[in-house]
Amino acid sequence: MTWEAAIEQFKHFLSLERSMSANSTDAYIRDVKKLALYLTEQDPLNTPLGVSSDHLKSFMEFLGYAGIAARSQARIISGLKAFFRFLLFEDLIKLDPAVLIESPKLGRKLPDTLSVAEIDLIFKSIDHSTPEGARNRAIIETLYSSGLRVSELLGLKLSDLHPDIGFIRVRGKGNKERLVPIGSFALKYLDIYIDQVRVHVPVKPGCENLVFLNRRGTGLSRVSIFNIVKDLVATSCLKKSISPHTFRHSFATHLLEGGADLRAVQQMLGHESITTTEIYTHLDRDYLRQVITEFHPRS
Q: b/e for 159-196, b at 16 or more Cβ within 10 A?
């Protein structure tokens, strides 16, 4: 079996049987292609069915020498493990060469967050006199109000909005649906955008139900959202490195700092494991110092 054939079968398996998102599937396929390129450069006759643990160890050493960060190495190993488990499941190999390959030890990286004042500063930097400004305000309000991933925001449909009960329907990873509360400010600016701006956009066929559109009447891209956030950060003169995902981090952090239940935040974020949500339980030193001062009997 050639690398090309194995990778194509693996791709179908991930998307159809595992119901993995397109972005996650592409990431796994890129990881396997990296291994394929490395091994075929060493030996053009190498096939996926002939890979040994020594081959994988050599590949991981190569990634280390190439300066690939530990976190990226861990992600690549995860993709390769999934690939060889697939080959084993399909009875294409008898032994899994990746079973004893360990990921590099990772420290827990705390996500960047914005303070409430910094988020207000970004809102104030938006030019509400333009159609794009009204749309962008609705976008940022929705990201921060409901903690959406970018892909979830882009897939949001008009039929997913339920302002009468204050919830939106969100399609997350693996096309799993969840209901997430949305705040009054977000609903207010969504109404302004939909009723005063979107109604004048010449919507292209197939995009009629999408909430957020570009001026040509088609759905926005991930790059578009990134550029919107990048421009707003520059206008607001914030010096932090901020991405669209930062608003999701801030959403979770502000809820937990305000006393929200961890399980409730997990459900709103759409995390499979509560361990993923626990990363947001970090609190800044000033807050911890304040808690000690107020509540410890010996402070």
A: ebbeeeeebbebbbbeeeeeebebeeebbebbebbbee
137-193: pLDDT as tens digits: 999 999 999 999 999 999 999 999 999 999 999 998 878 899 999 999 999 999 999
Residue holding tokens 């110092």? 289
Predicted confidence band of residue 35 (pLDDT cuts 50, 70, 90): very high
The structure tokens listed for 46 are: 């190498």
- Do 3-89 and 116-289 fold alike per CATH? no
Q: Catalytic residue positions?
A: 149, 173, 245, 248, 271, 280
Name which of 15-29, 34-48, 229-243, 274-288 the model is least confident about. 274-288
Per the structure block, which two tokens stand in for 165?
A: 């009960």
In one-letter notation, the amino acid at residue 216 is R
Q: What is the pLDDT of residues 209-229, one digit of tens each?
A: 999 999 999 999 988 999 999
Cα distance between residue 199 and residue 218, in whole Å: 13
Query: 155 with 130: CB under 8 angstroms?
Result: no
Q: Which fold has domain 116-289?
A: hpI Integrase; Chain A (1.10.443)
Q: Are 73 and 103 in contact (CB under 8 A)?
A: yes
Q: Mention the CATH class of domain 3-89.
A: mainly alpha
Quote the CA–CA distance of 147 and 144 in Å, as a whole number. Answer: 5
Q: Angle of helix 184-192 relative to helix 131-146, nearest 10 degrees? A: 160
The ranges assigned to domains in the chain are 3-89, 116-289
Q: Which of 187, 172, 171 is nearest to 137 (CA)?
A: 187
Residue 276 Cα distances to 85, 108, 239, 261, 279, angstroms? 24, 11, 27, 14, 6
Q: What is the edge-to-edge ordering of all strands in the sheet holding 167-171?
A: 161-162, 167-171, 177-181
Residue 119 has phi, psi (to 5 degrees) of: -65, -40
